[in-house]
Design a protein that fits this description.
By secondary structure, this protein is of the alpha/beta class. It has helices at residues 43-54, 77-89, 120-129, 149-157, 187-203, and strands spanning 2-7, 12-15, 25-28, 32-37, 68-69, 96-99, 133-139, 141-143, 171-174, 177-181, 210-212. It has five helices and eleven strands. The strands form four sheets. The protein has a four-stranded parallel beta sheet with strand order 5-6-7-11. Strands 8-10-9 form a three-stranded antiparallel beta sheet, with no helix packed on it. The chain has a two-stranded antiparallel sheet with strand order 1-4. Strand 6 (96-99), helix 3 and strand 7 form a beta-alpha-beta unit. The protein is globular and about 60 Å long. The two termini are 38 Å apart. The relative contact order is 0.11.
């Protein structure tokens, strides 16, 4: 048995061989090939060797396998309470309630809407008394407001992914509007993320995190809202002079930055690769 792993592959196509042939064919147009040969006698042992190579999955908490309830569009805590109450009345099991972005203030991470979701921390405490967990959503992009404390601290410390076009924070657009993306390869980014989650936990004792929009999602047409840094209309598209976004071949024919950030964005360790 052997295991073929192609890292960052574009498109690959299996090529059928004749039934009498022992040849396996696969046509690829790029990527980095790592070829591993396993010698166990059974397919089960191949899977064991495979997981020895890549690592074994984490064991999820038992309650994560239970009965969950979640929906986007519950505009107030009163609606969430109503849902829980009706489930109890109907004797429908409930082990986890999830909170979508409705609970946030202005769709901003590490916040709670002080009006529509006033009393959420106390509600979570009540859920815990019933042995029900609560999992709030957190988006990978932070609301890019110059008055937001996480943005101000992240800008000072270099905690965000940078734009190759401006050498400043790469700005995208997600639920809150203009968005900055935490650079998890930066120790400052990791520290900022932990601080935000700690602050949220001090507000309400959540049991897990629903990390959303972490593709990274971005709705700017060109991979970044680069116009945020210029007052000149018709500014040159950064992808006109960066090779990574305009490869000779892309799956489906779409640019690689479609609905995500520009491929030219760089991390804290960028200079290590120059």
């Amino acid at each position: 048995f052997f295991f073929l792993m192609i890292r960052r592959p574009p498109r690959s196509t299996p090529k059928p061989s004749s039934a009498a042939s022992d040849v396996y064919k696969r046509q690829i147009v790029g990527g980095v090939i790592n070829l591993y040969f396993f010698y166990p006698s059974t397919a089960d042992n191949v899977l064991k060797k495979y997981h020895d190579l890549i690592g074994r999955p984490y064991m999820v908490p038992f309650w994560a396998l239970g009965f969950h309830q979640c929906r986007w569009g519950w505009k107030s805590l009163a609606k969430v309470k109503e849902v829980v109450s009706k489930l109890e009345e109907a004797d429908i099991p409930l082990e986890v309630m999830w909170g979508d972005i409705d609970y946030m203030h202005n769709k901003t991470d590490f916040t709670i809407d002080p009006v529509n979701y006033k009393g959420l921390p106390e509600f979570v405490d009540d859920l815990h008394k019933k042995k029900i967990r609560y999992v709030p959503i957190i988006d990978a992009g932070l609301n890019y407001s110059t008055t937001d404390k996480y943005i101000m601290k992240g800008e000072r410390n270099g905690a965000f992914i940078k734009s190759a076009n401006t050498s400043r924070t790469l700005i995208g657009n997600v639920w809150p509007g203009l968005t900055a993306y935490v650079d998890f390869l930066s120790p400052y980014g990791d520290q900022l993320w932990k601080e935000g989650l700690t602050d949220l936990y001090e507000m309400m004792k959540f049991d897990g995190i629903w990390l959303d929009m972490n593709e990274l999602a971005n709705w700017c047409d060109n991979g970044e809202c680069y116009y945020n840094w210029t007052n000149t209309k018709g500014a040159k598209d950064p992808h006109d002079f960066h090779e990574f976004d305009k490869l000779p071949y892309t799956p489906g024919g779409s640019p690689l930055y479609k609905n995500t950030i520009s491929m030219t964005g760089y991390h804290h360790s960028y200079n290590d690769f120059q």
